[in-house]
Amino acid sequence: MEDIVLLDVIERYLTGQMSPEEKTWFKQLREKTPEIDQMVVEHKLFLHQLDEFGTRTALKHTIASAHDNLLQKGDISEGGEKTAKGRIVQMFHRYKKVTGIAASIAGVTALGISVLVATLSPNINKNQFEQLNRKIDIVQKVTNDRLNHEQGNTAVKPKPDYNFTVGGTAFLIDGKGYLVTNAHILQGSGAVVINKGKELTVKIVAIDKSKDLAILKITDDDFKPITNLPYSLKKGNVDLGEELFTLGYPTDDISYNLGYLSAQSGFKGDTSSCQISLPANPGNSGSPVFNKNGDVVGILTAKQAEADGVVFAVKARSIYQMINELKESDTTVQKIKISNNSTLKGQSRVEQIKQVEDCVFLVKAYNK
Question: Residue 1 has what pLDDT?
């Protein structure tokens, strides 16, 4: 029964019958489950073949109808009728099994996607996959900026009060103030970013839950654009065993970690992400992953709960894909220009970090 329900859900996906929420969920499930992705491909081929069969069957019926008319007029003999009918019967027997399967799939539509969620979700989420955002339960009642303003320093703008809920990391992909982070960090009505104690307001430009990515834009007047980012984003794969490092905010201070690529695919064979052997903690979600030359090759998103140092990163090419998709529908995103040049190659790690840390931000999501 589960296989039939799964086929029904796949057919609803392929025929555009899903709601936007269901479609987003199923896309994410498909990316994380290669077996389901393969079933989608095979079922798409099956539906195509079924359409072709329907077209051929309709043609056969048309020919048979024309044959009967000719037979009644006496234009053809009875022998021709037997031949035509015989071929139609052969076609029916040949495809009877296929049409029966199609009828079975249609018959379980009422079961809906909820059965699939109930049967598959526990297998994915049994405390194996743990996102790296950190929970915050702090109401920022009075910031230093507000205190200065209340004491008469009118040059300092007061910041509003926020009920912070979730923390993580973001980094610049365009010096004009565009950042990327994980979608799962943005739990609330908005977010702020902080670098070296300076809090900056941002707006959420786009969220793609299927890729677990989000684009932010710094809108604060205190932000000074960076003409040239010191790093680039790498579209290609990283070599197995290649040294990698990250900068992120598991605490309110930026932290450095060193590791290496341990697998080309991520959790349960997800090809849009990779596996890294590296220490990571809640708050590292959204941290950029650099290779030794200073290229961003990914963005940390989760870890395997029952194994130390097994973390997963969305590959940097997904950032390119998201932006290219957005540019088709959002003209504001067309302003984003991702750097393809890095000035960090050949420099010591200490020097690389000094140049990069101004581009990596603490993210705090909030409810007003």
Answer: 40
CB distance 213 to 326 below 8 Å:
no
pLDDT at residue 37, as a whole number:
67
**Alpha-carbon span 1 to 3, nearest angstrom:** 5
* SS3 call for 170: strand
pLDDT tens for 279-315 read 888 888 999 999 999 999 999 998 887 767 789 999 9
Distance CA 82, CA 302 (A): 67
Both tokens of 166, joined, read 């979730």
Query: What is the spatial distance between Cα 351 and Cα 25, in angstroms, rounded to a whole number?
Result: 42
Q: Which of 178, 169, 171, 175 shows the shortest CA–CA distance to 205? A: 178
Angle at which helix 2-14 crosses helix 34-73, to 10 degrees, equals 80
As a three-state string, the secondary structure of 106-136 is: HHCHHHHHHHHHHHHHHHHHCCCEEECCEEE
> For 135-152, how does the pLDDT look when each residue is reduced to its tens digit (9 = 90+)?
655 444 444 444 444 455
Task: Round to whole Å and give the CA distance between 178 and 205.
Answer: 9
**153 or 282, greater pLDDT:** 282
Distance CA 353, CA 231 (A): 11
